[in-house]
Amino acid sequence: AMRLVESGGAVISEFSLATPPWQGNFPRRNRIISGLRLGVFVIEAMIRSGSLVTAKCALEQGREVFALPGAIGNPGSEGPHWLIKQGATPVTTAEDILETLQNGLNWLPEDPKNWLYSSDQDQVALPFPELLANVGDEVTPVDVVAERAGQPVPVTVAQLLELELAGW
After folding, report:
1. Are 34 and 58 in contact (CB under 8 A)?
2. Strand 89-90 to strand 39-42: parallel, antiparallel, or no bridges (unpaired)?
């Protein structure tokens, strides 16, 4: 995946570039997305959602499925709770994912203590401080984060993608 990004990216689709978005095509798109990953992490999903379709595709492809437990009674937590009941790995820390996928993550240091940034390591300048100052521990829609940061949604999405690709 990193080679694809470094070489300018790639468009992977079963459809021509002229095909407009259509809800019926989303499961096929999600199958491609899950097939390109080592695992799928469902953070929030209602019981009938595309995220659960993607998780099902991941299982069929032999990928790992992770789910974030949420508040009982929150409709957005119903999907992850159902996945956990079906055997998905519950995630409460990043280490939960790293430990499960460690064999497929050959770029990680051998010592698990060095997998994640620790606050006692050297201080580093945070990228996009205006964005990070408006992201908390709770699940927050991207439009809310953008509004809090005082920037357009496309800028926020681009910055979040850049942070994710950089390992933040």
Report:
1. yes
2. unpaired
In the predicted model, what is the mean pLDDT of residues 24-32?
A: 86
Q: Which of 81, 115, 100, 90 is nearest to 37 (CA)?
A: 100
Contact 149, 130 (CB under 8 A): yes
Who contacts 84 (Cβ-Cβ below 8 Å, separation ≥6)? 67, 69, 90
Contact partners, residue 56, CB within 8 Å, separation at least 6: none
Q: How far is CA 150 from CA 126, 143, 147, 157, in A?
A: 18, 10, 5, 13
CB environment 11-42: b (16+ within 10 A), e (fewer): eeeeeeeeeeeeeeeeeebbbeebeebebbbb
Question: How far apart, in whole angstroms, are the C-alpha atoms of residue 30 and residue 147?
Answer: 28
Type of residue numbered 135: V
The model carries a pTM of 0.59
What is the rounded (10 degree) CA torsion for 123, 154, 37, 32? -170
Q: According to the model, what pLDDT value does residue 15 have? A: 86
Give the residue-averaged pLDDT of 83-103.
88
